[in-house]
Structure formats: structure tokens, C-alpha cells
């Protein structure tokens, strides 16, 4: 139906983690090329191909949460943030990003 012009990808639910890309905490789910949340408005989609680096902030083990900052290859584009990721998922998120 799409004449090979649109490619669909399915999120990996078991690799998902909680985070707050906007005001509320949602389940962020990786796909083979993106990090998405499509269940809350506004949708959150980060294409990994556009990312230069990922920076972790507030990684202190006495805190409950940490933040993740996405810096894009296009430095004129504003960075994207995901706040309030539970600290116990730090290794899980780092493993996914490898």
C-alpha cells in the first residue's frame, strides 16, 4: 500500500524505560532507529541517526533519578531532554545506547 515509500518499525517494549520528555512521565520505547513515545500528546520521537552524543546529568547514586540530554549533529537544532529516568535503569539505558 505504501509503494515502499514508508517504512514501519515496531518498538521493543522490553527495552522501554520511564522518563519525562515533556511534563509527564511516560514509557519511552526504543526501536531499531528511534526512541519514541506515541501514547501521550505531544508524541516524542528522536531519530538516533541524527544524534551526535548523549549526555547524562545528575548521575549521583544517592538521587532517585537522572536526566538524559540528546545533542544533535546539526548544532543549530535545540537539544532534546528526557528528565526523571529512574536511577536503577541507568545501566539498562547505557546498554541500549551502545
Provide a concise account of the structure shown.
The protein is 8% helix and 39% strand. The protein is mainly β and 98 residues long. It has a four-stranded antiparallel beta sheet with strand order 1-2-3-4, covered by helices on one side.
Which geometry do the CA atoms define? globular
Q: Structural class of the secondary structure composition?
A: mainly beta
Terminal residue distance: 34 Å
Query: What Rg is obtained from the alpha carbons, in whole angstroms?
Result: 14 Å
Unreliable stretches: none
Element string (H = helix, E = strand): EEEEEEEH
Question: How many beta-strand elements?
Answer: 7
Biggest sheet layout: 4 strands, antiparallel
Q: How many DSSP helices?
A: 1
Assembly type of the shown chains? single chain
- Proportion of residues in extended strands: 35-45%
* Proportion in helices: under 10%
Spatial strand sequence of the major β-sheet? 1-2-3-4
Write down the overall mean pLDDT.
93
Amino acid at each position: 500500500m505504501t509503494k515502499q515509500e514508508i517504512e514501519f518499525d515496531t518498538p521493543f517494549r522490553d527495552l522501554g524505560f520511564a522518563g519525562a520528555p515533556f511534563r509527564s512521565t511516560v514509557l519511552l520505547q526504543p526501536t531499531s532507529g528511534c526512541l519514541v513515545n506515541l501514547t501521550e500528546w505531544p508524541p516524542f520521537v528522536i531519530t538516533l541517526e541524527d544524534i551526535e552524543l548523549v549526555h547524562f546529568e545528575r548521575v549521583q547514586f544517592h538521587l532517585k533519578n537522572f536526566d538524559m540530554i540528546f545533542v544533535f549533529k546539526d548544532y543549530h537544532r535545540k537539544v532534546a531532554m528526557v528528565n526523571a529516568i529512574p536511577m536503577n535503569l541507568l545501566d539498562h539505558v547505557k546498554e541500549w545506547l551502545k
